[in-house]
Amino acid sequence: MGPSWKAEFVFIHVVDSREASRIASYTKEPIEKVKERLTNHAKQDLRHFLSDWDGNNLVKETIVSYGYPFQEIAIKAKELQTDLILMGGYGSKGKGEIDEIFFGSTVEKVVRILPCPVLCVPMGWSDENA
């Protein structure tokens, strides 16, 4: 019998404070109201995702944080002594495949800051792409 692997997942969603500021500026709402709305929406999204996911029994914790995404991810990863970070990549910048995933992105900053491995899965990837 092969080795037994025990994995626990911690899911983190970071509400980007810069985006919240832009929304507040546009809607003329107080920043705290926008922050609360975005945070509640993120918590709801996480609950919905986990209710549909077969691996829900592997989830140790869910965290919704507020700030700069790469900083919040780095802080939590160091606090939790994370072994591996798995992130989705939007591919919003760059000209080539690698550029589209990394350069100028939160993923790139996390890769540069943290000593643990970071696995980036491009958005839209599925088993059909394997």
Note down, in words, how this protein is organized.
Strands 1-2 form a two-stranded parallel ribbon. A two-stranded parallel sheet has the order 3-4. Helix 1 packs across helix 2 and helix 3 runs parallel beside helix 5 (106-113). The protein contains five helices and four strands; from the N terminus they run βααβαβααβ. The protein is globular and about 55 Å long. It has helices at residues 17-27, 31-52, 69-79, 97-101, 106-113; strands spanning 9-16, 59-67, 85-89, 118-122. The protein has 130 residues and is an alpha/beta fold.
List keywords for this structure.
130 residues, alpha/beta, 2 domains, two-stranded parallel ribbon
Topology, element by element:
Blueprint: E1 9-16, H1 17-27, H2 31-52, E2 59-67, H3 69-79, E3 85-89, H4 97-101, H5 106-113, E4 118-122
Parallel strand pairs: 1-2, 3-4
Quickly describe the structure.
This protein has helices spanning 17-27, 31-52, 69-79, 97-101, 106-113; strands at 9-16, 59-67, 85-89, 118-122. The chain is an alpha/beta fold and 130 residues long.
Inertia-based shape: globular
Which percent bin holds the helix content? 40-55%
Low-confidence stretches: none
- What is the straight-line distance between the termini? 27 Å
What proportion of the residues form beta strands (DSSP E)?
Answer: 15-25%
Number of helices: 5
| SSE order, one letter for each helix or strand | EHHEHEHHE
Query: Mean pLDDT, as a whole number?
Result: 82
Largest sheet: 2 strands, parallel
